[in-house]
Amino acid sequence: MKSIVIAHLYPREMNIYGDMGNVITLVKRLEWRGFQADVRAVEPGRPFDFGSADLVFGGGGQDSGQLVVGDDLLKRASELQAAAKDGVPMLVICGLYQLFGRGFTTLEGQEIPGIGIIRARTVGSGVRMIGNVTVESAFGKLVGFENHSGQTVLEPGQDALGQVTKGYGNNPESGLEGAVSGNVIGTYMHGPVLPKNPRLADHLLGAVLKRRGVHELVSLDDGMEVKAAKVAAGRPQ
Amino acid sequence: MVTLTLFVTKLAAGLSRSLGRGGGQALPGLIADKLDPHLAQTLSRGLPKGVILVTGTNGKTTTTKLLAEMLAAAGERVLTNSTGSNLKRGITSALIRAADWRGRLDYTVGLFEVDEASLRQVAPEVSPKHIAVLNLFRDQLDRYGELDTTAAMIGEGIAATKARIYLNADDPLVASLARYADGDGRVTFFGSAVQLKRAGTHETVSDSDRCPLCHTRLKFSQVMYGHIGHYECPRGDFVRPMPEVELRDISVSNLERSEFRVEIRGKRCDFNIGLPGLYNLYNAMAAMAVGDGFGLGPEVMAGAMRSTQAAFGRVERVEVEGRHVVLLLVKNPAGFTQVLETFLIGRKQAAVMMAINDNDADGRDVSWLWDVPLEALAPNAADVVCSGTRATDMALRLKYAGINPAVEEDFGKALGVLMEQTRVGETAYILPTYTAMLEIRKLLSKTTQIQEVWK
């Protein structure tokens, strides 16, 4: 089988809080099952063919990083929307989760338009939501670490990733965390999210391989993953 | 008022110590904040040669120690704060402890390491004569927020004083802080001109590789480590400033020490330091830049540097049951990477203990472990044991780097494993986060000779 292509959105600008660990996890869990992965960086201003991508990943970044990639992402909106519609699995964290929504209104009232793959809006706030977070989801109990001041509100009909059982999630009021839209998942969870939530990682990889005609995902020994998740879930918020 | 505040705060410190609550390090400062928030200002006026502040992400403690030895060698009586007490209250506490009941100090100069986010509170209080900024790396993002924010906070501290400013020319974000120092001739840059021919240099996440002014990606003609190097903005908005204090040649560099040549304002001088690693040469460069600005001669600085031992927990060597144990504090991706490159990658490997805590002082977010290029250890990895509150996170990171470690959350048990894995006469490494380091040193102090932490 040809290598599984992972399109990594803006790795140099959006790489805060160890989000690179998600890519490492995807690659390793493919390799352990006998598949090759080919991670290709999407760089601002450089052409990229999303038609070749089996999976799209994007992390969080500093404000300066977000500013740099915002315009570039808009130029790729239709291509990414088409890929999402096509069922290409995508995982976006924090900053890129926000930009995959309809848009971000900063604390100063500036509008940063998003690409609308996720039906949600984010508004900047003066409160930073920081700490360990746990979530009940279709992929079991998820653990992560959040660090954001943007508050995201899902539109009616937009599914969340899960219910917050510790921490803030999308915003302090809704009790919801993240968003799921087809094979696209957005979340505020760093940690990074995938290593300690192998079921979520395998959900994405299962969807990738299904599109390649592989319907069975060989199970792996997740002993250390489960142990680390349990410890993390037991830490105070 | 000064006398009354001193009386209350000194009493509190004494009580705290006798109750065994740490060393009463920050308590006096905490109380002083309530009674007389400008006590530090009043007291520091009693230092005839003023105050020197050292800040930046990595190397504060080592640089401060180097500089303290240099100043002492020149006959100065140096008042310092202990590491871990580098917020405003810690510095106030150091002044309170040193003062007599009437607020008089028997010191000639104050030398304090200052937390990056606290410089803007400390600087206006103590009116420093000199401020050194070492580097800015991602560190405890749950506490500091973004790197640009940290830089701006340091800038605020610089702008609030008339101090001489010493900046790392090779760190673009640090070098850009010169814009906060209005007025000519107030800034001195230090850096390195050495062409590095190092094996085992690894691509890591770069923390700030964009122009501090226009955010265009910088062009690097040379990378020393992380984002430290020689750079210029392709749009011409920013370029590496020429350092007045510059590393010119490294003749010896091993796990014990380095010998190197520095050009200080055009004059070449040879130095010898009992610390390994390029990152420690940058610390030395910073200490020399400040020393030179203070008026110390190169001979005095060289003499002091030769005899300086590592600060506690930073390349600290301890004998444990006949084994050589080296403590190497790791706090963030840049520091962890430097420790790996200096001591472990590409070498015949010793047993290693990675001790990761997630207490407030460590940073509660351990995501950063995934930004450390641990994959580079895999080809010749020896035994690794993971310990601390987040031992399992460390172990999981190592699993994905192709290394299969042992896990013992308890430091005592993990030390036992490390000793089993290390033969008598051989070397083992302990890589702890900050609070893990304190706990491990406490354990070690029961069985071996180790300098008391609260000194």
How many domain modules of chain A?
Answer: 1
- Strands ordered across the widest β-sheet of chain B: 2-3-1-4-5-6-9-10-11
Q: Helices and strands of chain A: which structural class?
A: alpha/beta
Shape of chain B: globular
CATH architecture of the largest domain in chain B: 3-Layer(aba) Sandwich
Describe what this molecule looks like in 3D.
The complex is a heterodimer of chains A (237) and B (455). Chain A has 237 residues and is α/β, with parallel strands linked by helices. Chain A has a single domain (4-233), classed as Rossmann fold (3-Layer(aba) Sandwich). Chain A has helices spanning 20-31, 63-75, 77-85, 94-100, 198-211, 223-233, and strands at residues 4-9, 37-42, 55-58, 90-93, 103-105, 111-113, 120-123, 129-137, 140-148, 151-154, 162-166, 176-177, 179-181, 184-187. In chain A, the strands form three sheets. Chain A has a six-stranded mixed sheet, with helices on both faces. Chain A has a four-stranded mixed sheet with strand order 6-5-7-10, covered by helices on one side. In chain A, β8 and β9 (140-148) form a beta hairpin. The N and C termini of chain A lie far apart (44 Å). Chain B has 455 residues and is of the alpha/beta class. Chain B has two domains: 2-307, Mur-like, catalytic domain (UDP-N-acetylmuramoyl-L-alanine:D-glutamate ligase); 314-447, Protein-Tyrosine Phosphatase, Chain A (Alpha-Beta Complex), CATH 3.90.190. Chain B has 15 helices and 17 strands. Chain B has helices at residues 2-18, 27-35, 39-44, 60-73, 88-98, 119-126, 141-144, 147-159, 172-175, 278-294, 298-307, 333-344, 391-400, 411-421, 434-447, and strands at 51-55, 78-80, 109-113, 130-133, 164-168, 187-192, 219-225, 228-232, 245-253, 258-264, 267-273, 314-320, 323-328, 351-355, 384-387, 406-407, 427-432. A nine-stranded mixed sheet of chain B has the order 2-3-1-4-5-6-9-10-11, with helices on both faces. Chain B has a six-stranded mixed sheet with strand order 12-13-17-14-15-16. A two-stranded antiparallel sheet of chain B has the order 7-8. In chain B, a hairpin with a 2-residue loop joins β7 and β8 (228-232). In chain B, α2 crosses α5 (88-98). The longest helix of chain B is centred in the first third of the chain and has 17 residues, at 2-18. Chain B is globular and about 60 Å long. The model of chain B has no long low-confidence stretch (mean pLDDT 90).
